[in-house]
């Protein structure tokens, strides 16, 4: 008897939700029938949640309280509808009709994640509209369309759906197991202790300059492990300077990256200060030249991003870099800062013996620092395109600036406006270097 009544209510609810013909007497509306329908809907809700979670995860008892909290809301709405029609005896009938369509909506919810991925918020809006139309139809079927009672009933069920959506959101009773986050590689004891050996080995391998032979030293600094473009760019530039500019044995890269913890020392400000001090010791101050490349994200206050979890790395600032270079005793230097707002590095670093090149003006973004790229826009233009054609660091900037401007204009980007400062004394020194043949 109870099972038969449940089946009739489910069939009537399905016909109502699918806008098929249905009449008030198709429902069974006794207290026992209503309670059975609620129990069935609850079981189906739990089963649907388990299916979405792949029958894994944890049961959430708090979700049950939220689910059951919606039951008094439906009964209250049914009572108000019955009062609007002055038919108190229809309370259970209206409540049953409002509840009997829930299984259809629950089954529809099983495919909603896929629809939401394809259609976005439109899928959720469509489901809510469907539920609202079905509720209006439940009022019309159970109590009629006589006005103004129907308009009052429509207002009541609209309020019921709104309150239910915001106050009693249907949460899954099965919480899917959360994927375990991969531990930070540097948290591994072996890799952590390897860092000390890496920096010591890298510093020890820097060869001393040979008197009477002006030589080029290269230091690369990529302190942000959050995106691989900085590491990829640094690998290319180091290889370029080792092979094309004869810096092999006089080059060092400091790079924060989970993929290079056994290849390069971490790109920390402390390691950079040590590297510059070591290079300063190895160089012949009056003859040799330093080329320093810094590549990271930049901020409006000109701090460069620094990330290598779980370490807390200090961001590099223009004044900190200027102090490191001053303390190192390195006289002749070319500094390239590839970052947003990097023009803020020119003023603190400029002197007669330096060239300072930045990927952007002090108030502009630069572009191309996305995961998956091999270089930033400026890095591509300067190192891969321009320096492949000339050994002049100044001439390469002119070529790169034009390439960047054309690329940004084509994509409709706000111009980054790369900057350069050329100290008069170093300009003469670089003329000598650019006249030398490629080093083998």
List the helices and strands and how they pair.
Layout: H1 2-17, H2 31-52, E1 58-59, H3 61-84, H4 91-100, H5 102-119, H6 121-143, H7 149-167, E2 174-175, H8 189-204, E3 216-222, H9 229-244, E4 251-255, H10 269-282, E5 289-295, H11 318-328, E6 332-338, H12 346-349, E7 354-358, H13 377-386, H14 393-411, E8 419-422, H15 424-434
Parallel strand pairs: 3-4, 3-5, 5-6, 6-7
Antiparallel strand pairs: 1-2, 7-8
Helix pairs in contact: 1-2, 1-4, 1-5, 2-4, 2-5, 3-4, 3-7, 4-6, 5-6, 6-7, 9-13, 10-11, 13-14
The domain count comes to 2
Give the % helix: 40-55%
- Radius of gyration based on Cα positions: 35 Å
In terms of quaternary structure, what is this?
A: single chain
Number of helices: 15
Q: Give the overall form.
A: elongated
CATH architecture of the largest domain: 3-Layer(aba) Sandwich
Order of helices and strands: HHEHHHHHEHEHEHEHEHEHHEH
- Unreliable spans are 435-440
Number of strands: 8
Strand order of the largest sheet: 4-3-5-6-7-8
Distance between the termini: 94 Å
Mean pLDDT: 87
Structural class of the secondary structure composition? alpha/beta
Tell me the strand percentage band.
Answer: 5-15%
> What is the level 1 CATH name of the largest domain?
Alpha Beta
Largest sheet descriptor: 6 strands, mixed
CATH topology of the largest domain: Rossmann fold
């Amino acid at each position: 008897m109870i099972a038969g009544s449940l089946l009739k209510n489910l069939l009537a609810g399905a016909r109502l939700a699918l806008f098929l013909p249905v009449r008030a007497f198709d429902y069974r509306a006794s207290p026992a029938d209503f309670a059975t329908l609620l129990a069935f809907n609850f079981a189906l809700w739990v089963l649907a949640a388990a299916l979405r979670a792949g029958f894994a995860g944890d049961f959430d008892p708090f979700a049950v309280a939220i689910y059951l909290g919606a039951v008094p809301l439906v009964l209250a709405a049914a009572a108000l509808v019955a009062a609007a029609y002055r038919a108190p005896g229809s309370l259970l009938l209206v409540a049953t009709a409002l509840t009997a369509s829930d299984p259809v909506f629950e089954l529809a919810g099983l495919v909603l994640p896929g629809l939401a991925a394809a259609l976005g918020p439109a899928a959720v809006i469509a489901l809510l509209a469907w539920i609202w139309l079905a509720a209006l139809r439940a009022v019309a079927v159970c109590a009629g369309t006589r006005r103004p009672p129907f308009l009052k009933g429509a207002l009541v069920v609209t309020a019921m759906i709104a309150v239910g959506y915001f106050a009693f959101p249907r949460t899954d009773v099965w919480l899917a197991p959360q994927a375990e986050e991969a531990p930070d590689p540097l948290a591994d004891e072996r890799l952590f202790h390897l860092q000390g050996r890496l920096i010591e080995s890298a510093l020890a391998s820097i060869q001393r300059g040979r008197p009477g032979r002006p030589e080029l030293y290269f230091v690369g600094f990529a302190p942000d492990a959050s995106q691989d473009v900085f590491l990829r760019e640094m690998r290319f530039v180091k290889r370029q300077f080792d092979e094309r500019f004869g810096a092999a044995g006089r080059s060092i890269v400091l790079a924060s990256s989970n993929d290079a913890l056994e290849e390069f020392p971490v790109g920390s400000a402390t390691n950079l200060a040590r590297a510059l001090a070591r290079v300063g010791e190895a160089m012949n101050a009056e003859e040799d030249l330093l080329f320093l490349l810094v590549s990271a994200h930049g901020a409006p206050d000109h701090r460069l991003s620094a990330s290598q979890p779980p370490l807390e790395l200090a961001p590099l600032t223009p004044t900190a870099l200027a102090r490191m270079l001053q303390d190192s005793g390195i006289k002749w230097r070319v500094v390239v800062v590839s970052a947003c707002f990097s023009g803020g590095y020119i003023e603190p670093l400029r002197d007669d013996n330096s060239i300072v090149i930045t990927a952007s003006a002090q108030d502009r973004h630069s572009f191309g620092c996305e995961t998956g790229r091999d270089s930033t826009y400026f890095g591509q233009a300067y190192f891969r395109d321009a320096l492949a054609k000339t050994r002049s660091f100044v001439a390469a900037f002119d070529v790169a600036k034009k390439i960047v401007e054309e690329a940004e204009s084509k994509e409709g980007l706000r111009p980054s406006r790369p900057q350069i400062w050329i100290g008069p004394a170093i300009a003469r020194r670089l003329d000598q270097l650019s006249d030398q043949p490629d080093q083998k």
